[in-house]
């Protein structure tokens, strides 16, 4: 039986089990039976009427439970567990070891023996000692069931009234027994992990895009982090939180929260896990939030947090503007958590659906998931039961999201899916009308064409008409008088002038940045703030660019962009690089092009399936030295640590796009580079665009024109030595793309022909198609050649490229900056080569 949160998850797990073929099932059953016989383990789990109708997985009785929640699962009077084969085998081996002469500790000091001296007694679930369950290798899709835990020697007892209790030997929690066995009392840790899991589970539960690879990785990480925690715990403990905070945190714990968490107060003294948070004192946050911030190692608020949090806590509507990577998510996340903590607990007798506290809208799916993750980190780190956070984005199951929404405290989503779910979900509309916070992140983007329609619909339904208010019951109406009005919080690093022009029905060059006053007027019109004058807080009026960002520009012929891209990637091998392009086809082409050159490139664009999108971001985040080739879908908000270099392969179309793309590096206190690759004829326009971003006043615009963007000096003679390999890699990439394109065109035409009831022959169609002359003929000829390339020819090209890549690039002995006269690109890729081979790439970026 599997219990996740309050729900029986039996069917999902069964589904995973069905991925195993019949022979494997039998083998597992046999191995399990053998292991059980070895152990003398008795019985199979008896299932309830509901669950017995479906085939049952062999891993049994694993529970995911959260402290403080009632568990509605049904159990039989005397349920006992069967062990998963791997665990059973492990235990059998352990027992053999213990049975060997001299292999076991002296009988008196053995935990097992000591435990025998204790009788079983009723225990809370969070007192029990849970163990990780290794999952079978063949289970491809766990549907959220990674990180399962199980427990030994626990009796599940149901009394005559149907009440279920758990009985175990007291040794499960007795510190002295654990000490005898060389173990430590980790009750507090278990609680903390389960609490953390709560919000995370809400998100991953609805996350169809998780691959089994990802799950395995996550499972490994969880185990690793648990081990790490254990090691840390063994270190001598020191007090590092500000003393007042520790005192008040402990006070808050004992007075307001469950006893099961009291162990965390002791852990709060661990130096490695907590930092001094006295710098947050002025914001007058609760002990719970401070404790969480301490654990996140956020020792002080960022300027946007210091400026906006008090205003939001005072109940104001706020428009917050601050440079990229300056902590805007926590600027609204912390007040939302504070409000959540101050809410009275819902009486258990109250069975009505609750309204979410906050709705956070984001322009992209990746950003929505990231916001949810950041909030989960904030809300699951402290000594309290955090809010339930639900992500509502496209690419995930609508039904699941609707189901989770019924219990959500904080909802994060993209406008399209949010609108779909809210407007069609039963009763969700009225719940959302009662939210206390509407957060519009990356507001200028969300209010642009393409997004605004759905955003406007959401804003409209959130407006509660008088008639609708009257429909509330009397009791609700009385309560309503005391409920503070909804606050609207708007954040971005930029505000976009084109929007304002559109509003006034004027044409303007989009991409210009708005003045403070213009931003206010625009937003007040678009978002119906409750306050007449929301607080406009701009902590970086002079610039929206991160202070430690350095910018540069490379001029090259349009046809040589690929070559320079490769050169730049080589020069920055081992660094995390994010390449921006303006089109999806370019991302599709550049990714295999770089991969052909042995560079670890990953794609990201909006036409990829959600699963692949999330995987690309995850892999890019996990692997230092990887390269993400993306459209502007990655430009806003993504917070990937240690991105060292942004390359604008295509020039950004607008000033704000440049700001946001470049803002993926140099986040927080980190440094970073942003390099534009442009053709000579594009250079002047690019400089104008950059000057606009940096100018504080109109007068400065002209004088600063050349100041902010430096031309990077790359030795063209050396770059040209890389050309042969680039030509081959490009040809191969073009071939693959052209073949794929041909296939999809063929499929489309074949389907159309079928609909019309005619035969489709691609060659005849090509020959007879009209308008096949004139512009684009050369490109089409190339495409045709590429599609006609045989497999053998492709293989020959690959072999040639491999051969080329395995040799050093001969740059001639006379080049003064080279010691050997040849460049070992492979060594360079491993971060060992001569990094100067590109010539005088003196970017003045030494500190990056
Ligand atoms: N007080 C703090 N101290 C240290 N780090 C912080 C603090 N607040 C937030 N951070 C971290 O700073 C990073 C950037 O934060 P965040 O993503 O919220 O930036 P942002 O201003 O929203 O950026 P963007 O404009 O690009 O969306 C995150 O990794 C976040 O965890």
UniProtKB/TrEMBL annotation:
Assigned keywords, A-Z: ATP-binding, Helicase, Hydrolase, Nucleotide-binding, Nucleus, Ribosome biogenesis, RNA-binding
Compositionally skewed regions (Acidic residues) per UniProt: 202-221
CDD domains referenced in this protein's UniProt entry, alphabetically: DEADc_DDX24, SF2_C_DEAD
Listed InterPro entries: DEAD/DEAH_box_helicase_dom, DEAD_box_RNA_helicase, Helicase_ATP-bd, Helicase_C-like, P-loop_NTPase, RNA-helicase_DEAD-box_CS, RNA_helicase_DEAD_Q_motif
Ranges annotated as biased composition (Basic residues): 227-240, 772-782
Keyword Isomerase tagged: no
Record-linked SMART domains: DEXDc (SM00487), HELICc (SM00490)
Protein name from the UniProt record: RNA helicase
Organism: Delitschia confertaspora ATCC 74209
Lineage, highest ranks first: Eukaryota, Fungi, Dikarya, Ascomycota, Pezizomycotina
């Amino acid at each position: 039986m599997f219990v996740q949160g309050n729900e029986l998850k039996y069917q999902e797990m069964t589904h995973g089990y069905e991925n195993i073929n019949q022979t494997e099932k039998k083998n597992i059953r046999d191995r399990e039976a053998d292991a059980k016989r070895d152990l003398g383990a008795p019985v199979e789990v008896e299932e309830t009427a509901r669950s017995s109708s479906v085939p049952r997985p062999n891993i049994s009785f694993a529970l995911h439970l959260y402290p403080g929640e009632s568990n509605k699962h049904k159990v039989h009077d005397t349920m006992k567990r069967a062990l998963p084969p791997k665990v059973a085998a492990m235990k059998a081996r352990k027992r053999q070891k213990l049975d060997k002469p001299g292999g076991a500790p002296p009988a008196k000091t053995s935990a097992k023996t000591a435990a025998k001296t204790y009788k079983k007694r009723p225990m809370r679930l969070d007192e029990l000692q849970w163990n990780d369950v290794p999952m079978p290798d063949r289970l491809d899709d766990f549907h959220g069931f990674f990180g399962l835990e199980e427990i030994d020697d626990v009796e599940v007892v149901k009394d005559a009234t149907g009440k279920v209790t758990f009985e175990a030997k007291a040794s499960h929690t007795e510190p002295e027994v654990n000490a005898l066995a060389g173990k430590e009392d980790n009750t507090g840790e278990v609680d903390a992990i389960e609490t953390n899991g709560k919000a995370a589970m809400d998100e991953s539960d609805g996350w169809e895009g998780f691959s089994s690879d990802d799950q395995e990785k996550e499972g490994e990480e969880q185990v690793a982090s648990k081990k790490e925690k254990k090691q840390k715990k063994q270190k001598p403990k020191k007090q590092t939180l500000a003393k007042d905070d520790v005192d008040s945190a402990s006070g808050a714990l004992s007075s307001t929260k469950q006893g099961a968490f009291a162990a965390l107060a002791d852990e709060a003294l661990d130096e490695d896990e907590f930092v001094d948070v006295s710098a947050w004192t002025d914001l007058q946050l609760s002990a719970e939030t401070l404790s969480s911030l301490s654990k996140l190692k956020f020792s002080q608020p960022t300027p946007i947090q210091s400026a906006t949090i008090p205003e939001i806590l005072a109940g104001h509507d706020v428009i917050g503007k601050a440079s990229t990577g300056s902590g805007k998510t926590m600027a609204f996340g912390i007040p939302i958590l504070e409000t959540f903590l101050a809410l009275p607990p819902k009486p258990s007798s109250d069975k009505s659906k609750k309204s979410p506290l906050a709705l956070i809208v984001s322009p992209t799916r990746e950003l929505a998931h990231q916001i949810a993750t950041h909030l989960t980190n904030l809300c699951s780190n402290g000594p309290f039961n955090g809010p339930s956070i639900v992500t509502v984005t496209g690419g995930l199951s609508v039904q699941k999201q609707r189901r989770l929404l019924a219990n959500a405290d904080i909802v994060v989503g993209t406008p399209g899916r949010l609108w779909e779910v809210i407007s069609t979900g039963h009763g969700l509309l009225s719940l959302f009308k009662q939210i206390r916070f509407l957060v519009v992140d990356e507001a200028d983007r969300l209010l642009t064409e393409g997004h605004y329609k759905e955003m406007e619909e959401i804003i409209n339904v959130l407006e509660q008409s008088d008639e609708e208010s009257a429909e509330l019951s009397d009791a609700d109406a009385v309560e309503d008088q005391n409920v503070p009005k909804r606050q609207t919080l708007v954040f971005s690093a930029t505000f976009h002038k084109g929007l304002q022009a559109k509003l006034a029905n004027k044409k303007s060059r989009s991409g210009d940045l708005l003045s403070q006053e213009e931003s206010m007027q625009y937003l007040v019109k678009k978002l119906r703030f409750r306050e007449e004058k929301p607080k406009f807080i701009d902590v970086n009026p002079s610039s929206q660019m991160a202070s430690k960002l350095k910018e540069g520009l490379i001029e090259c012929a349009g046809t040589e962009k690929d070559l320079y891209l490769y050169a730049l990637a080589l020069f920055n091998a081992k660094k995390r690089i994010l390449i921006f392009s303006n089109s999806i086809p370019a991302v599709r082409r550049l990714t295999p092009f770089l991969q052909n050159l042995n560079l670890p490139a990953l794609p990201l664009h909006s036409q990829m399936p959600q699963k692949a999108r999330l995987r690309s971001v995850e892999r890019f985040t996990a692997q230092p030295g990887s390269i993400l080739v993306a459209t502007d879908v990655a430009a806003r908000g993504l917070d990937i640590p240690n991105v060292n270099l942004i390359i604008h392969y295509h020039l950004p179309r607008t000033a704000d796009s440049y700001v946001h793309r470049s803002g993926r590096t140099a986040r927080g206190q980190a440094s970073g580079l942003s390099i534009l690759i442009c053709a000579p004829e594009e250079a002047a326009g690019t400089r104008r665009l950059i000057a606009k971003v940096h100018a504080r006043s109109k007068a400065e615009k002209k004088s600063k024109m050349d100041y902010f963007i430096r031309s990077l000096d790359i030795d063209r003679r050396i770059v040209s030595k890389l050309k042969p390999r680039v030509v081959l890699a490009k040809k191969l990439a073009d071939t693959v793309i052209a073949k794929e394109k041909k296939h999809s065109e063929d499929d489309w035409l074949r389907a159309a022909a079928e609909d019309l009831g005619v035969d489709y022959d691609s060659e005849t169609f090509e020959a007879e198609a009209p308008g096949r002359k004139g512009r684009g003929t050369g490109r089409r000829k190339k495409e045709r050649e590429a599609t006609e390339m045989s497999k053998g020819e492709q293989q020959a090209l690959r072999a040639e490229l491999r051969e080329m890549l395995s040799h050093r690039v001969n740059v001639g002995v006379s080049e003064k900056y080279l010691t050997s006269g040849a460049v070992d690109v492979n060594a360079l890729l491993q971060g060992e080569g001569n990094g100067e081979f590109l010539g005088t790439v003196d970017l003045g970026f030494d500190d990056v």
